[in-house]
Amino acid sequence: MKTTIKTICLLAFLNFAGQSQAQTKEETISWIKEKIEKYPIYDKNIVKSIDPCKITVEEYIVENGKEYLYLTSNIPTTPIAFQGKMMFFNKEVVEKIYQNLNSIEYSSNAAVFDPEKEPELDKRMLKALIHLNTFCSNKKETF
Question: What is the annotated signal peptide range for this record (predicted)?
Answer without folding.
Answer: 1-22
